[in-house]
EamA family transporter
Amino acid sequence: MHPSTERSPGPPRSSRALPLATVALTALAPAAWGTTYAVTTELLPPGHPMFAGLARALPAGLLALAITRLLPRGDWWWKAGVLGALNIGTMFPLLFLAAERLPGGVAATLGAAQPLLVAGLAIGALHVRPTVWRWTWGVLGVAGVGLVVLGPDARLDTVGVLAGLGGTTAMACGTVLTKRWGRPAGVGPLTLAGWQLTFGGVLLLPLTLVIEGLPPSVDTGAAAGYLWLGSVGGLIAYTLWFRGIGKLSVGASAPLVLLSPLVAAVVGLGLGESLSVVQWVGFAVALAALLAAQWEGRATVPAVAPGSGSGSADAAVDVPVVIARR
């Protein structure tokens, strides 16, 4: 079945809201990630993005393995390795590098482009063509975040911009592949998160020691920052995220990452910053884009290409298609 071209940017004629509890729990993950910018700039020692990624990933991954006591089997060794390299081993250090070299607003805007990247990758990997409705709200979401976080004094650092785009692209690829492969039968989201955090941490360990080294000192504030990023922003957030990806379409889950820069803006308010009228308008637009993505068409096609599923029930969750509107 090949989806036809959508003719209107309006919402599907026959639509339904996704389960509120599933959306809300999944949204907690990007909301937690929204604290990363403040924690990085306020608490962590500068100049050590790889160590920050390592400290966030490996202890949390090993803890998850100790809790679940499940290791990958068969082709899930390399699949977990690929997902861990994309979602953790590549994304974490690039995220921290971008947060160090760019104003939080610029880094957040680059991350807000992820729903558009996911929509594009889903065409080839999941055989799903996003509707004009999805594309339109995706663009509006990036624009809204830009209004919130970009100021006239925003500086662009080439290395920081490349790091931000690289981290966003890596996680977009990881999100799509996670949806395509699903989870092995009997494996829960905590186990999947543990595999990926461990693989990503093991990948970062030698690179950190050889290229960057350890920070000269880690004070109490930095230790608290690493603990927060590894627990709430790491193991807990990724468990909720992978659970949500298994239950929601990528078209619904990917726009939830818009919460990250919005939460970062709210944290900034708590640190004494203020928002202008234009920024509040952007906040409303980004929030509207996030909510608009949670309306799905009733007709669906399989999200996993024939023969590519992992045997998991979650891998067979459908991605919405609106007949005669795509």
